[in-house]
Amino acid sequence: MIYLFVALKIEATPIINYYKLKKVKFNIFENSQMKLLICGIGEKNFSLSCGELEISENDEVINFGICGSCTPNLQIGEMINISKIQNDKISFTLQNSPNLKNLTLQTFHNPVTKNINFSCDVVDMEGFVFYQIFQNLTNNIKIIKVVSDYLDTTIPKKNFIYGLINKKMAILNEEIYGK
User: Fold this and answer.
1) Which end of the chain is more exposed for a tag (fewer CB within 10 A), N or C?
2) pLDDT tens digits for 28-74?
3) Among residues 158, 82, 160, which one has the least CA distance to residue 126?
4) pTM of the full predicted structure?
């Protein structure tokens, strides 16, 4: 089974539509091959929500959603694979993608609005705890992000986020299923 974890309902909506997922609980959607869980923003919400599903070692778990870019070398709307995840203390290596840029993600507790010489390419608020939760349950862990901003102080609008993700659904499908 493939398990997709997103923070925001607006990140989930294009996925729900693309895969024709059915609602089974207020924050869980599924079809015969995939389950999607809307967890909420931040490490605490992800930690609490991820316990709602039973994951086995053969399952694939994917954290998908938007991220802020620490570098102008990435384009808004660009989909990337996270090959290294870190917080302010430790880091872990994840699998590379042959199709996407493989970059470093740092997770923060609060929104980041200034680039203070980070040793990462992109930032989010959930990726690190997602990895920590599943690292001992399965080896099939992916984190895939879409660049939404350059650490702006303004939160991206819902229709903007929907458009970014909706345009990338075929690429996401290729990353998940290899086709």
Assistant:
1) C
2) 999 999 999 998 876 766 666 666 678 888 999 999 999 999 988 99
3) 82
4) 0.93
